[in-house]
Amino acid sequence: MRILNCDESYSEPILSILNEAILNSTALYDYQPRTLDSMAAWFATKRKGNYPVVGAVSENGELLGFASYGMFRGWPAYKYTVEHSVYVASAHRGKGIGKRLLQRIIGEAEGQGYHVLVGGIDSQNLVSIGLHESLGFERAGTIRHVGFKFSKWLDLVFFQLILKTPANPVDG
Known about the structure:
alpha+beta, seven-stranded mixed beta sheet
């Protein structure tokens, strides 16, 4: 397995992983599968913000999972904080792929001079919570009943990892 940067040529496999999560889990608080057309806008946003999209690719070229980050909030003082996401194809979960992807994302964030990585995780997703805790993320808070999916209220837990970067943060 290799971890590499993904471009729009990975739109279909990324979409497949996202849509499986939308339809079958609370990893995404979304109801409807996304379209292939939506991926062009997604990648455009990533390019515009210089946000990485990394993928775990098998020896035969299959995308096993992917990770990325993007803007946390739109106000300027949040410029050193990004919100990340990690998704692994259902057939490949439990093999350490998510950990490798998250480690790469942490390295990318440090390399770009970010200070905080934030992850929003459904409170029942104990595997993702354990993954984040294993890499030093700390629980930053819970927003109760913030989502409603599969006929139940969902609690969203935020985790954060404080990085040593940037070396010289500035206002403005």
